[in-house]
Amino acid sequence: MKNDLFGALINVPVSKYKKNGKVKIDCGIICKLRLRNYHAKKPNKITRSQFKLPNRRFGFANTSELFGYLKHDYDQENQQRIRQSIHELTVPGFVSFVTEFLVPLCAIFFVFYLFIMFQQLITFFHKYITNLNLLRNQTGM
């Protein structure tokens, strides 16, 4: 279960709680987990357990789905901060799209290109040698 949460986005408080219970909320990515048997003493160390793994297609995260869940019932300022964080945290999905999909595809096309060029080179030399032999036969060399 612990490993299933790596890469999930989670809402976390980034300021102290005010007397009215308000707090600034932002998004982060779960990179490390530590289980403990006691409750955190500092309120800003307590998450609200609102986390979501991004659904990725071709390396891209569905940001509207993430925002729909993570915005919860927060005020406009927190929702704007969460939306911005989701965008910043999911842009690396483009990097995985490039490295997992486009780079191998480009490599395949490059190998195909080299194969075609090699065939053309062989055809060129074959014609060159054939013409050279015909020329030798005609000149009697």
SSE diagram, text form:
Blueprint: E1 9-13, E2 25-29, E3 51-52, E4 56-57, E5 60-61, H1 63-70, H2 76-90, H3 92-139
Antiparallel strand pairs: 1-2, 1-3, 4-5
Helix pairs in contact: 1-2
Unreliably modeled segments: none
Major β-sheet annotation: 3 strands, antiparallel
* Beginning-to-end CA distance, first to last residue: 81 Å
Instruction: Write the H/E string, N to C.
Output: EEEEEHHH
Mean pLDDT: 77
Strand arrangement across the biggest beta sheet: 2-1-3
Shape: rod-shaped
Molecular structure report:
The protein is mainly alpha-helical and 141 residues long. It is 50% helix and 11% strand. The chain contains three helices and five strands; from the N terminus they run βββββααα. It has helices at 63-70, 76-90, 92-139; strands at 9-13, 25-29, 51-52, 56-57, 60-61. The strands form two sheets. It has a three-stranded antiparallel β-sheet with strand order 2-1-3. Strands 4-5 form a two-stranded antiparallel ribbon. A hairpin with a 2-residue loop joins β4 and β5 (60-61). α1 (63-70) packs antiparallel against α2. The longest helix has 48 residues, at 92-139. The model has no long low-confidence stretch (mean pLDDT 77).
In short:
Helix content is 50%, strand content 11%. The longest helix is centred in the last third of the chain and has 48 residues.
Task: Supply database-style keywords.
141 residues; three-stranded antiparallel β-sheet; rod-shaped; mainly alpha; two-stranded antiparallel sheet; 3 helices
